[in-house]
Write a structure and sequence with these properties.
Blueprint lengths: L2 E6 L7 H17 L1 E6 L1 H4 L6 H18 L6 E5 L5 H10 L4 H5 L2 H7 L8 H4 L1 H10 L5 E3 L5 H18 L10 E3 L34 H10 L21 H6 L1 H13 L4 H8 L4 H27 L2 H29 L5
Parallel strand pairs: 1-2, 2-3, 4-5
Helix pairs in contact: 3-14, 4-8, 4-15, 8-9, 10-14, 12-13, 12-14
The protein binds adenosine monophosphate and tryptophan.
Length: 343
């Protein structure tokens, strides 16, 4: 059976971008693959975290996995720091990845902007730790949102270089493939359709969180940025199945709300456009509110229920970490030996 692995950072409250871009796609995979899902706490500390909040966010992220429908019997759910082999392999891979490759990572550039000098070294080598998360299980498939495509390509380059440099070309690490929602769900901020909806936009109206109430959802959508024109019809797509970069740039807010509808309703762009063609933003916002309340509120309610007993979640993570350690340790040992490190 092939393996899938994915990770979500416990760096803040989870939002509908995480849900439609990632979590929701994790669930069906547990039936067809050996699935490993990890709360990547070591990634979270690449930016400053308050310890008590990090602990709470780790449990909340695990609760979101469970509330989305992952079963601890079918999938292995664990916290990254519970499996030291991730950090061990990350060090080995830091010595494989080239600075020139890391320099190209747009996420690092986006996150640091003009404050590059003040970023942690951990944030810079973040993709090598991500490579370790995946390669330490030799996972073949990695379900992620579209924003992680560049990181996945880097992971493939790191795997290939390791195989070439240390294994005479033997495929010690198979190249992992991204599984990205065919329609490329990327949910943008409700306040600025050009920016990704992100956990680091804490506490504002830009994000719909999984634990938001129906009222929160309605209010945030009502206030979401819009423009003055009627919504476009399907003809605007031409022969393409989805809006082009030019279309997105011309009306980012319209495409974002339509895109959230499309993702939430699991339908094609054509169907979504046909439904809203010529109508105004307020219609879209009202219908979207209803749809999101139906999908998101039950997930949030289940998270609340699970989080009322944090011990139970901790037990699930500890059991998952134990299983994951048994898989990961021989792989990191084998990699270390190939590099000439003594046992
Ligand atoms: P992160 O919040 O960066 O740990 O991301 C966890 C997962 O959610 C990853 O698979 C991301 O690709 C996905 N994700 C995060 N933000 C978004 C977004 N705004 N739209 C779609 N997917 C997202
Ligand atoms: N970098 C991913 C993100 O920000 C999170 C992540 C860490 C991940 N390790 C991973 C995703 C391994 C997939 C596989 O979304």
């Amino acid at each position: 059976m092939q393996r899938v692995l994915s990770g979500v950072q416990p760096s803040g409250r989870l939002h509908i971008g995480n849900y439609f871009g990632a979590l929701r796609h994790f669930v069906p995979l547990q039936d067809d693959y050996e699935a490993l899902y990890c709360v990547v706490d070591l990634h979270a500390i690449t930016t400053p975290q308050e310890p008590a909040r990090l602990r709470a966010a780790t449990l909340e992220t695990a609760a979101a996995f469970l509330a989305a429908g992952l079963s601890p019997e079918r999938a292995t759910l664990f916290h990254q720091s519970g499996v030291p082999a991730h950090a061990e392999l990350a060090w080995l891979l830091n010595c494989v990845v080239r600075v020139g490759w890391l320099e190209r990572m747009t996420q690092f550039k986006d996150k640091t902007g003009s404050h590059r000098e003040a970023a942690s070294a951990g944030l810079y080598v973040y993709p090598a730790l991500m490579a370790a998360d995946i390669l330490v299980y030799r996972a073949q498939k990695v379900p992620v949102g579209e924003d992680q495509k560049q990181h996945l390509e880097l992971v493939r380059d790191i795997a290939a270089k390791f195989n070439h440099d240390w294994c005479d070309g033997e495929e010690y690490f198979p190249p992992p493939e991204p599984l990205i929602d065919a329609a490329g769900a990327r949910v943008m901020s409700l306040r600025d359709g050009r920016r990704k909806m992100s956990k680091s936009d804490q506490g504002d109206a830009a994000c719909i969180y999984l634990r938001d109430s129906s009222d929160d959802i309605a209010r945030k959508l009502r206030r979401a940025k819009s423009d003055a024109d009627a919504l476009p019809s399907a003809e605007i797509l031409g022969d393409s199945a989805r809006p082009s970069a030019e279309l997105l740039a011309a009306r980012p807010e319209a495409w974002n709300l339509l895109g959230i509808w499309r993702a939430a309703n699991s339908e094609t762009w054509n169907d979504t456009l046909a439904r809203f063609a010529g109508r105004g933003f307020s219609d879209l916002k009202n219908e979207l509110t209803e749809l999101l309340v139906e999908i998101v509120v039950p997930v949030g309610t289940e998270m609340d229920r699970l989080l009322a007993d944090g011990d139970e979640i901790q037990k699930i993570l500890a059991r998952g970490a134990e299983k994951a350690r048994a898989l990961a340790e021989p792989v990191v040992r084998g990699a270390a030996e190939r590099m000439g490190l003594l046992r």
